[in-house]
Amino acid sequence: MASPNIEQYEEEDGALIVAKGNYARVLLFGEARLAFEDLMTLTDEASVGACHTLKRYFKTYADQGPTYLSDQMFKSEGRQKVSGTKVLVHAFKGKHVRIYGVADAHKGLLCFCRTSCDPAKKQRKADPAKLKKAAEEWVRIKNG
Hints:
Layout: E1 10-12, E2 15-20, E3 25-28, H1 30-41, H2 45-64, E4 74-82, E5 85-94, E6 97-106, E7 109-118, H3 128-142
Parallel strand pairs: 3-7
Antiparallel strand pairs: 1-2, 2-3, 4-5, 5-6, 6-7
């Protein structure tokens, strides 16, 4: 199984647009973008499989929204308080890879903006520091 090619994606203001659909767009910023780009360069079977799985989940989300993804694919990780605002963080879940982010408007369009990543997740519960980082990064991006 070949790894996806990074050149197939568009960029916007430093974000990698990994899916566009009738429901939303899925953008990867910062750490999440770098981790996904790294994942796409790996050729071992587990990494290639995780990359293809995440791409499929991104596309399903963009086309149909989160209700078409199970908790094993896409899960709410709760709200994080940042600068007096509670930010709801979600995770796309590939095998041993979690990409955290926030669903919100970006440039006037509904987007799922990925802002943090756990590329070698081993335990069942999300790392609270990663969740907080995802929320903080989204607030930073949104506030420009």
